[in-house]
Specification:
Chain A has 315 residues and is α+β, with helices and mostly antiparallel strands. Chain A has nine helices and ten strands. In chain A, the strands form two sheets. A seven-stranded antiparallel sheet of chain A has the order 1-2-3-4-5-6-9. In chain A, α2 crosses α3. Chains A and B meet through β2, α5, α6, α7 and β10 of A and β2, α5, α6, α7 and β10 of B. β10 of chain A pairs antiparallel with β10 of chain B, so a sheet runs across the interface.
Chain lengths: 315, 315
Amino acid sequence: MPDSKSHLEAIEAYLTNLQDRICGSIESQEANTRFREDAWKRIEGGGGRTRVLNNGSVFEQAGVGFSRVSGNTLPPSATQQRPELAGRSWTALGVSLVIHPLNPYVPTTHMNVRFFEAAADGKDPVWWFGGGFDLTPFYVFEDDAEHWHAVAKEVCSKFGVDRYARYKKWCDEYFYIKHRNETRGVGGLFYDDLHEGGFEQCFEFMRAVGDGFIEAYLPIVERRKSTPFGDREREFQLYRRGRYVEFNLVYDRGTLFGLQSGGRTESILMSLPPRVRFEYGYMPEPNSPEARLSDYLKPRDWLAQNVSNRTQSHS
Amino acid sequence: MPDSKSHLEAIEAYLTNLQDRICGSIESQEANTRFREDAWKRIEGGGGRTRVLNNGSVFEQAGVGFSRVSGNTLPPSATQQRPELAGRSWTALGVSLVIHPLNPYVPTTHMNVRFFEAAADGKDPVWWFGGGFDLTPFYVFEDDAEHWHAVAKEVCSKFGVDRYARYKKWCDEYFYIKHRNETRGVGGLFYDDLHEGGFEQCFEFMRAVGDGFIEAYLPIVERRKSTPFGDREREFQLYRRGRYVEFNLVYDRGTLFGLQSGGRTESILMSLPPRVRFEYGYMPEPNSPEARLSDYLKPRDWLAQNVSNRTQSHS
């Protein structure tokens, strides 16, 4: 662990730069629409900059937030893994984003990288990293999901042979809508409580995930953004966005912790889709493209096919 | 307490008739649109009939559900007030409704009446009633809210002098969106764990609330359903419906208990509005009709003005 202040400065410098680069790459897809920024402060300590782009030609809404906040008393709900830290002072830094494209053939996505540190009596502070990225298509193109997972695996590759498999599984388990018996989308990476390998390696992994996100998502946007669509696809997208709302408000620990701990409501709920539809008893037509989505909303080994293709081409 | 079966039959007979009457009064506002019914069974025991009307000229969606369900093991989350009952077998009967009108000048409303019974070792079963009704306008007409609360008070009048005041307060406290620091609407009645006065009186109160709902809501619909509106009012309605989603998915105990205990998801979530809009950082124009709503989203003594008018007219 480096000096107790400089590591926070290093993380902040990376995260604010990451936010800039992500917003730049989103804006690069738009002719005229730009992010607007709200800088905010938190009474207990710290603040953030929330950036939202609305009504673009490609992105109906993109929210990319940076925050660095601190508090005097960690609530017990934040320390399920480490109850002994309840009540300690803490600092959290992170970048979090949710992107809701206009075209239903472009998937929704979410990415988050975060660092958490809690004071420990007379010892070095306790710290951990968390984060990941996941993809929520309305119409699944297997190419896109394979590319997404290939980048996820590449991001993990230099951090141990099983890291992709572990974080991919964790992602499937975390983004699971229990009352629908389906995953939120086709997954990606999710990790929390990461401290293995020491601070420097964990921080390097944060950077790999943050940088990898752009590489994972932008090519999919490029590929799908011009696909023609009509009311049918739009209505299906609005309906499926309802599941996003259900997950975020019923299950997402980050959202619930944020709302319960007096976080900045507008920044927390910028994850919610700009327009949504709920429909009692909706069932897609059998064998329609809309019906096929459910085949993909369960854990799946997205890279198995690639591996087997590669094996075949060598045989 | 009457014989252990006949009281359940009496409650069921009242509730199914109430569902019929409410659906009839909703349909009486529509030229051609009718409820469709799904009858369903629950594997563990019991079932229900869920009725939904969609895309009416007055009601964009109305969901009115009856259910009678039973289980072998009460989850602890259902017995916060009586932890000694956890694990017992139970039966629950209720009618629950949420109505989302098309015209933004007609308020959204929710009503629920329910009965709960849990087995108790070697003793009479433990039972209680719960329910209430509440109103969520987008544009507040004080006349409407006063009428609503006058009926609520009348419903309570023969059950004790303080009952309206207690249940009105409980409603304000229950339908409170903490992260927005506002009530969900202008309130009404909310009660739970009701057993005071004995079974017969409690059942009579259930009937007073159920019957009172029609008398409270229909005149407001009649008064406002033909008010002209445009995109501005519609967009505001869609935005405010987002708060309804936030409350129901983050705070509503009935919704969360239902989803967590393996209830019928479609029936539980028929409370969600058919179309919704979320907007980061939305602020109504100062002094606009939209801005005035927030003045009403805090507890208010709706009948004080009437009392003082009446007093004045007598003086």
